[in-house]
Amino acid sequence: MSSYNVHGFGLGQGRDFQKFLTIELYDLECFFEKNCMQCRLAKMSDIEFIMKIYVRARAFMAENGNPHQWGDNDWPPQELIESDIAKSQCYVCEQAGKIVGVFVYIFGVDCESDYLTITDGKWFDDSAYGVIHRLATDGITRGVGSFCINWCYEKAGHLRIDTHADNKPMQGLIRKQNFAYCGIIHVENDNYPRLAYEKSALTEVP
Fold this sequence. Notes:
Strand content: 25-35%
Helix content: 25-40%
Distance between the termini: 25 Å
Low-confidence stretches: 1-12, 19-23
Largest sheet: 7 strands, mixed
Order of helices and strands: HHEHHEEEHEHEE
Radius of gyration: 19 Å
């Protein structure tokens, strides 16, 4: 656990000092480092920044051997993101007040209809789960993808996620986060199969 010397920061022994001591460790680190990440619900006023991140993400995919996943139809369209925001399921990740990532998070029993049919494998856990879709980062800030996935897992305790067979960077990130490969699913917006993964207490290796 980190420890800090608070002398010299103008914090006396009164109410301010007591309040300072009650700050959670992560917030305390942010107080000093000014570079912590946090996730929040996206707002309509974030649309311009969000769409710029998706433009960058499509370019990155094309440059790294994955031109079809989002490039064939300029996915995701702005109308979909606006709908996600209106449904309170689009989130942004911020660092020092700047949007550095975006994703959709939903939770429930069978909350993703595309996951009802899976081939060449099976899901490990039939309980309610969270789903992450349309995860993208600014391509500059390190650790955004891992932070967003961990944030969702802490909320849900059971996650499912999918990605294109050509999306090697995303596959690497998913494996790094200890997801188990489950099989193949298909999505409505294109004809490319998706690799499906899951993480819960039932997928963890003892």
